[in-house]
Fold this protein.
Amino acid sequence: MPHAVFSELLLLLTLCGFGASYACLQDPALAYTLSGAVCRLTYPAAVVLNEKTTKVIEAAFQHARYPSVKGDKSIMFIGSVKYYLDNLEIQSLSIGRSEFDLHPGKGIAMEISNVSVVFKGTVQYEYSNWVVNISDSVIFEISSNVDLGINPKLYCGAGKVAADTSDCYLNFHKLHLHLQGDKEPNWLKKLFTDFITFTVKMAVKAQICKEINKVANILADFIQDTAEQFLTDGDISVDIGVTAPPVITANYIESYHKGLTRYKNTTAVISKSVFHPSQLSENRMLYFWLSDELFNPMIAAAHHDDRFQLNISGAELSEPLKKKLSGATPEFIRKCLQESGSPELRVWSSSVPHLNTSTSGTTVWAKASGNLYCGSQSIPILFFETVVVVTVTASYADKKLFLHGTSSQISVEKAELPLQNQLTQLEFIREAVEKIGIPKVLSVLEAELTRLLDKQGADLFDILNTNILPLDGFVSIELDFGFPHHLLVEFLKKTLQ
């Protein structure tokens, strides 16, 4: 199906768009500054998608509701024939090959060749002249062989990528109408079938092109609805409506998206994005360009939604403190860990984190607070507040996200401690944050982000050879993929309901 190609996977992994907060811009340079996310689908990816077009073309043919056809014809010296074709439906269908090409600045050209279709239906006809009047109702069969051509154009529509498939045509290499039991009809029936063939051609062509346009719009909405759900969790969502018309070159299709975090009744603003097309290459199948201006509001929303909280208790807490630190454990902490039935450390983000991406990674500034409880006590024996600066890099393999962190600054800003040996106790907390706290937080984030991706269906995709590249002010994700067959199945089920 053509829109399976030009919907740009749209963003089969993450991107979609609803809710235009500003008009789709014709000035690319201005649109770049307002774009938090960019998607580039290269020619090799379009080839993979094109291999699946036949399934959706079949759906378009089978889902079409073909109109009844009626008419009459007067033939000199012979008489007149009136006819009415009804209940037209597909009995069998096969599709040959599908080919496409990207036309820079214009659109996509698609050719689906050797489509063989057999229709069945009912025909009522009446033949009359000055001598006889004959009427009958019989089952008919139409066998056809056609080539289908579609030249979809991409544009901005209602804040998202839309397609115009009105440039659609069918070339009939064969279209024969046979009345029931008449593979070799008499002269009257042959005359009858010959002159209504043209009418049937026009009806089938109009309905198929209409259905393809309808299915294209359904597919566009389906993909973008799926992507919107992918980017929604609880009260946090992301508006990835388009900021400019998609760009088509001979080698790729590229779309530009807002990337505005929405949390409860607030929506973020992006105005200083640093995107430029030269920042992405054309060597891989799919590219995502994600701005720091997309990530920071998303992190702020997660903070305000109390997502950054972690409780550690029991052996998970006490064992690392015994083995991984160089300094002696302060007595009041040692006593809590050994004598308490279930010591618990509760840690949370105490101010909005902030990040900045460079070629060395994504540097995160965060302030975290913690309380240490002993057993059933309701009052913590320790409170501390620490400022952490960590540079994080990410990778994705075997359907799992991996985070790697290097701390560059750890300081204990506040701590409620016994009066004796406070400097030693502060160093213990600092070292515990560095050697235990940061790795623990990263491992939890790895698991939770992977879980969230899986919850939204990312594990169902065949994502290959992923590179996550940190650069100045943005992250570039490049990958290859296998077509997510499950998404096509879900779409076809929805379409054929």
Remarks:
- Residues 1-22 have pLDDT under 50 and may be disordered.
- The first helix runs from residue 2 to 6.
- The chain is about 30% helix and 40% strand.
- The radius of gyration is 32 Å.
